[in-house]
Design goal:
Layout lengths: L3 H12 L24 E5 L7 E6 L5 E3 L3 H9 L8 H9 L4
Antiparallel strand pairs: 1-2, 2-3
Helix pairs in contact: 1-2
Bound molecules: zinc ion.
């Protein structure tokens, strides 16, 4: 049987967040990966956390941590049993901003 925390870590790994630096309240003004300004927005995961669970750059698509890996995985584990369409999330993120 898969434990809750393992399920959360599996989902976390699927997000492919590269960095370990955290921005707790506000995302960085400048993306540390592509150096564009004002392009980072919060990503909410329904049932995981009420608010932005992590940040994502609209320019390069890199994701940034808001919480530690352990904490993020813990929140993601709350979605265990719910269907999370990561492929569709990617598709949505690839759409150009309005
Ligand atoms: Zn970027």
């Amino acid at each position: 049987m898969v434990s809750k925390s393992n399920a959360g870590l599996e989902i976390f790994d699927g997000l492919e967040i590269r960095g370990t630096k955290r921005w707790k309240k506000e995302p960085p003004d400048v993306c540390p990966y592509c150096s564009k300004e004002d392009c980072i927005s919060g990503v909410e995961v329904i049932a995981a956390y009420d608010g932005a669970l992590f940040w994502e750059c609209d320019e390069c698509g890199e994701k940034l941590l808001r919480f530690t890996k352990e904490t993020t995985a813990k929140y993601l584990a709350k979605t265990d049993g719910l269907y999370i369409d990561l492929e569709r999330m990617k598709y949505i993120c690839q759409e150009p901003p309005n």
